[in-house]
Write a structure and sequence with these properties.
CATH class of the largest domain: Mainly Beta
CATH topology of the largest domain: Thrombin, subunit H
CATH architecture of the largest domain: Beta Barrel
Largest sheet: 13 strands, mixed
Number of helices: 5
Structural class: alpha+beta
């Protein structure tokens, strides 16, 4: 089903606010808008518009842009103007990138709490209740999601650690702008399971059969894959505390891939022996999540072909991908969705599974 001209115009309208969430104006004519949503980290935005005094005034660094029909908002971080093309280009990240401006400046011990509780607690103590809070930031509605975890974290970048917890828990997080109440809401959320074998939700299948899997690109890579983390805690030499964490108990021989993790920074203060060992295991699990097998598929689709984007499926949902020509069938989470608005049309490019990172981070941030 094709969208009407009115629906297209509503989706393409860009609203601009300042950092205090006061409306500055709208942009409804531009060459291109690339709105990239991500489940486990901050997405990105890229706007190409005519080089006019009004657009220069609106598309300033630090201003916030949102789009009709989108739950996310983005902060403009870079602006370039080109006389030759008479075009202005604005780029930025979704609002959760602002959490990278704060750090976890104390030792936080958590025992048998949900991942959602942990993420909310870290944001609260680091960016809300801190002596230098992020203005207008509050905790959003608690959903009661995520499995239980025992961990200790100290002196880390807040945003980076949230992405690690997101990878471990398969929960998404975002900072949503409430433009009516003039607040930024930190929210943890979870996608729905729409795969073909589940019961209870509508099944969503992407396949050539349904003509909703076009220009597909499949990637799999195990070069950085690790199956077992050997975690070294306190002590010296042969007396050092050592535990093992694994994501594959059956991996042996060449299939067993070990990762050495230095967790000397984990302190025993106020922890029982069981809690201390659980904390070390959690540290190993966090690191292993950074070294998984890459298996992802990207494809171009239209928002209302067979299944309606944001109604039948959305960012974070698990769907079935069936690329019959390649013999590939898998249930994967939608970890990224790129919305491209250009030349009066819209295309949706979902990423199923986790893509290969641009770089391998060998530091323990």
């Amino acid at each position: 089903m094709k969208q009407s001209t009115i629906e297209m115009r509503q989706q393409r309208l860009i609203k601009v606010y300042d950092i205090d969430l006061m409306r500055q104006g709208v942009i409804d004519v531009y060459r291109s808008l690339i709105w990239t949503r991500k489940y486990k980290e901050a997405g990105t935005v890229e706007i190409h518009a005519a080089l006019t005094s009004r657009n220069l005034e609106l598309l300033q660094k630090g201003n916030i842009v949102t789009m009709t029909g989108s739950v996310e908002s983005a902060i403009i971080e870079g602006v370039s103007a080109d006389d030759f093309s008479s075009e202005i280009t604005a780029t930025g990240h979704m609002l959760s990138i602002g959490l990278s401006q704060r750090g976890i400046k104390t030792v936080v011990n958590v025992s048998n709490r949900s991942y959602e509780d942990v993420m909310r607690k870290l944001v609260d103590i680091s960016a809300i209740s801190d002596t230098n809070p992020l203005p207008r930031l509050i905790l959003g509605e608690k959903k009661g999601i995520g499995g239980a975890v025992t961990l200790q974290v100290s002196y880390k970048d807040l945003y980076t650690y949230l992405t690690k917890l997101s990878a471990c828990s398969n929960l998404g997080f975002r900072v949503r702008g409430d433009f009516k109440e003039k607040k930024f809401l930190f929210e943890v959320y979870e996608g729905k399971d729409h795969s073909e074998n589940q019961i209870g939700n509508k099944r969503v299948i992407f396949s050539e059969v349904y003509r909703n899997l076009n220009q597909a690109t499949f990637t799999t890579n195990s070069q950085n894959h690790k199956t077992h983390a050997i975690v070294f805690g306190d002590g010296e030499g042969t007396a050092r505390t050592v535990v093992e964490a694994t994501i594959d108990q059956t991996a042996t021989g060449w299939n067993r891939r070990e990762l050495m993790v230095d967790a000397r920074d984990v302190q025993r203060d106020n922890l029982t022996e069981e809690q201390y060992l659980s904390t070390l295991i959690q540290r190993g699990t966090e690191k292993l999540k950074e070294y998984g097998i890459v298996e992802c598929l990207e494809a171009v689709t239209l928002p209302n072909v067979n299944f309606t984007y944001k109604t039948d499926y959305d960012l974070g949902d698990i769907v079935t991908v069936d690329k019959k020509a390649w013999g590939i069938k898998m249930n994967k989470r939608i970890t990224e969705v790129q919305e491209v608005y250009e030349n009066g049309g819209i295309s949706i490019v979902p990423t199923f599974g986790d893509p290969l990172p641009d770089t391998v981070d060998l530091t323990d941030k």
